[in-house]
Amino acid sequence: MKKLIQKLPKAELHLHIEGTLEPELMFRLAKKNSIEIPYKNIEEVKKAYSFNSLQSFLDIYYGGANVLIDESDFFDLTWEYLLTCKAQNIVHVEIMFDPQSHTKRGIKFETVINGITKALERAKNELGISSFLIMSFLRHLSQEEAFETLRESLPYKAHIIGVGLDSNELGNPPSKFKEVFEAAKKEGYKLVAHAGEEGDSSTIWQALNLLHVERIDHGIRCDEDEKLVQFLKEKQIPLTLCPLSNVKLRAVKDMKHHNILKLLNAGLMVTVNSDDPAYFGGYLNENYEALVESLDMNEDELRKLIQNSFDASFLSEEKKRKWIKKIKN
């Protein structure tokens, strides 16, 4: 199965570019930009990539972002992830970025997006990887700050396909961002949101009914509500699940207890993704391999999950069909 996972073309739909900051690059950029980090060497950085909750992860995640200063840093960060995509036969990516993690530090919005988009363009030309960019609002900040970020994004609409919502779910429900999502929709952005990972199934309903999202990021707790499961199945609303992330953040006790195949076999549009792979112990292929190892995933389930990754994407129907045909052959 490992060879088949490697061989099949895949799409990734739930990936935070800041979450691909490997310890080696963090250390290198800290040195280059004269940024003080509390680690003496790469081994100490690797040890720090250990946490026991979403909040403890986020503390390290936002701390790591401090080493990203100029356009070349964002280019290097993105390019390294795309090289991994090439190595794992990931042919399409829908990358999330957190502009507020950087603008709050005095980094210009244009610096962030220019670095990222130049790497995406190079990957399209040199690696044959297609991509879309999703701008995420940080839910622990205010809706007013999200509106400011939305305004900053408007000159770059040609580079951004949609908006999302991430960071700490607890105490920050989707309802907090209803108006800014309405405004984003009017600007033509596609809508996604994290829900049902830390938060219970009610947060998924909120994201659907109040934010009118087209995709739920995570959503593993949907099975707490049978009506919700049925709704997601009937509407084929995608869930971008992240197995290794769920276990690392203790949203799921053990991979053997993960509900992804149960949801898949119940007819839901679930997909496999790596979330923040530098921090969670694996990129996309490693997530698929973990499902084989812990859940005895079979070849039909593997092919269906990979097909779903294209069906749930924002690619045109023509491009979806092109890739799905290759998965089925």
In short:
The chain is α/β, with parallel strands linked by helices and 329 residues long.
Kindly describe this structure.
By secondary structure, this protein is of the alpha/beta class. It has a single domain (about 1-329), classed as Metal-dependent hydrolases (TIM Barrel, Alpha-Beta Barrel). It has helices at about 1-5, 25-30, 40-50, 55-65, 70-85, 100-105, 110-125, 145-155, 180-185, 200-210, 225-235, 245-250, 260-265, 275-280, 285-295, 300-310, 315-329; strands at about 10-15, 90-95, 130-140, 160-165, 190-195, 215-220, 240, 270. An eight-stranded parallel sheet has the order 1-2-3-4-5-6-7-8. The longest helix has 19 residues, at about 110-125. The two termini are about 15 Å apart.
Shape: globular
How many domain modules?
A: 1
Biggest beta-sheet profile: 8 strands, parallel
Strand order of the largest sheet: 1-2-3-4-5-6-7-8
**In whole angstroms, how far apart are the ends?**
16 Å
Instruction: Provide the helix percentage.
Output: 40-55%
CATH class: Alpha Beta
Portion in beta strands: 5-15%
Alpha-beta content class = alpha/beta
The sequence of SSEs as H and E is HEHHHHEHHEHEHEHEHEHHEHHHH
- Overall pLDDT score: 95
User: From the alpha-carbon coordinates, what is the Rg to the nearest angstrom?
Assistant: 19 Å
Please give the count of helices: 17
CATH topology name: TIM Barrel
